[in-house]
C-alpha cells in the first residue's frame, strides 16, 4: 500500500489581497509623513462681512452728519434773518429817535422864538431876526435856509417891507458877494415881508461851482417909517 504525503495548498486569492493591501498601506504612510512637512492650512477668514458692516456704519454716520449740517444751516439762516430783523428794528428805532430829537429841537427853537418875542417887546420896539439855520438840500450845492423875523408886541400895525439875502465868500481865491438873484433858481432880487407878530422865512440857496461860502447876510427893509432897517450876518454853518 502506497502512503502519500498530503500537500498544503495555498489559495491564490490570498496573494492577490496582499498585493492590493500593501500599496494602500504604503500610500497612507507616505501621505501621513508628507502632511507633517506641509505648512499648516489656516482657516478661511470672512473679511467681506466686517467691511460691509463698517460701510453701513459709515453710511449711518454720514447720514447723521448731513442731518446735523442741515440743522446748522437752518439755524444760521434763522440767525441771519433775526440779525436782519434786529438791524431793521434798530434802524427804525434810531430813525424815530432822530425824528423825536428833531421835533424836540424844533419845539425848543419855537419856544425860544416866542420867548424872544415876548422879551424884546418888553425891552424895545423894532424888528428881530431869530433862529437862522442852514441845512443840506436834496441836490449837490443846494442848501435850505430858515429864519424867523419878528417885531416887538409894542409895535403897532403890521410889518411890511422887503427882505434881501446875500452870500459872502471866496471865488477863485478872491473875496466875493453874491446877491439873492445869483444864488436862487427863481432869480428873485428880494423876498416880500408882511406880518403882525412874526413871519417864518425859508428858501433854497444854490451855491455856484467854485464858490466857497463863508457868511450869509440878511437885510430887512420895512416900508413904513416906524420900523428901522436891520442887517445881520450869520456864519456859514450847515447843520447835519
CATH superfamily of the largest domain: Immunoglobulins
The residue ranges in which pLDDT falls below 50 over 5 or more consecutive positions are none
CATH class of the largest domain: Mainly Beta
**Major beta sheet, specifics?**
5 strands, antiparallel
Beta percentage is: 25-35%
Structural class: alpha+beta
Number of domains: 2
Task: Please provide a written account of the structure.
It is built from three helices and nine strands. The radius of gyration is 58 Å and the shape is rod-shaped. It has two domains: 50-123; 125-239, Immunoglobulin-like, CATH 2.60.40. The protein has 240 residues and is α+β, with helices and mostly antiparallel strands. The longest helix is centred in the middle third of the chain and has 76 residues, at 48-123.
How do you describe this structure in short?
The protein has 2 domains: 50-123; 125-239, Immunoglobulins (Immunoglobulin-like). The protein has 3 helices and 9 strands. The chain has helices at residues 12-37, 48-123, 180-183; strands at residues 127-136, 142-151, 159-171, 174-179, 191-195, 198-206, 211-222, 230-235, 238-239.
Secondary structure layout plus pairing:
Layout: H1 12-37, H2 48-123, E1 127-136, E2 142-151, E3 159-171, E4 174-179, H3 180-183, E5 191-195, E6 198-206, E7 211-222, E8 230-235, E9 238-239
Parallel strand pairs: 1-9
Antiparallel strand pairs: 1-2, 2-6, 3-4, 3-5, 3-7, 7-8
Pfam families: DUF6776
InterPro entries: DUF6776 (IPR046703)
Transmembrane segments: 15-34
Amino acid at each position: 500500500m502506497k502512503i502519500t504525503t498530503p500537500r498544503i495548498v495555498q489559495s491564490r486569492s490570498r496573494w492577490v489581497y496582499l498585493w492590493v493591501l500593501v500599496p494602500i498601506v504604503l500610500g497612507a504612510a507616505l501621505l501621513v509623513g508628507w502632511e507633517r512637512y506641509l505648512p499648516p492650512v489656516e482657516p478661511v477668514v470672512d473679511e467681506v462681512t466686517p467691511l460691509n458692516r463698517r460701510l453701513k456704519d459709515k453710511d449711518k454716520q454720514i447720514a447723521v452728519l448731513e442731518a446735523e449740517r442741515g440743522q446748522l444751516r437752518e439755524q444760521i439762516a434763522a440767525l441771519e434773518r433775526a440779525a436782519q430783523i434786529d438791524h431793521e428794528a434798530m434802524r427804525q428805532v434810531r430813525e424815530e429817535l432822530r425824528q423825536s430829537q428833531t421835533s424836540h429841537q424844533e419845539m425848543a427853537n419855537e419856544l425860544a422864538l416866542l420867548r424872544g418875542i415876548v422879551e424884546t417887546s418888553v425891552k424895545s420896539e423894532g424888528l428881530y431876526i431869530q433862529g437862522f439855520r442852514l441845512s443840506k438840500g436834496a441836490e449837490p450845492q443846494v442848501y435850505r435856509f430858515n429864519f424867523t423875523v419878528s417885531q416887538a408886541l409894542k409895535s403897532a400895525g403890521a410889518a411890511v417891507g422887503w427882505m434881501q439875502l446875500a452870500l459872502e465868500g471866496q471865488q477863485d481865491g478872491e473875496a466875493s458877494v453874491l446877491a439873492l438873484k445869483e444864488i436862487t433858481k427863481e432869480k428873485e432880487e428880494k423876498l416880500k415881508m408882511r406880518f403882525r407878530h412874526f413871519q417864518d422865512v425859508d428858501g433854497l440857496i444854490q451855491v455856484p461851482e467854485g464858490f466857497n461860502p463863508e457868511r450869509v447876510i440878511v437885510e430887512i427893509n420895512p416900508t413904513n417909517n416906524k420900523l428901522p432897517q436891520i442887517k445881520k450876518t450869520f456864519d456859514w454853518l450847515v447843520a447835519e
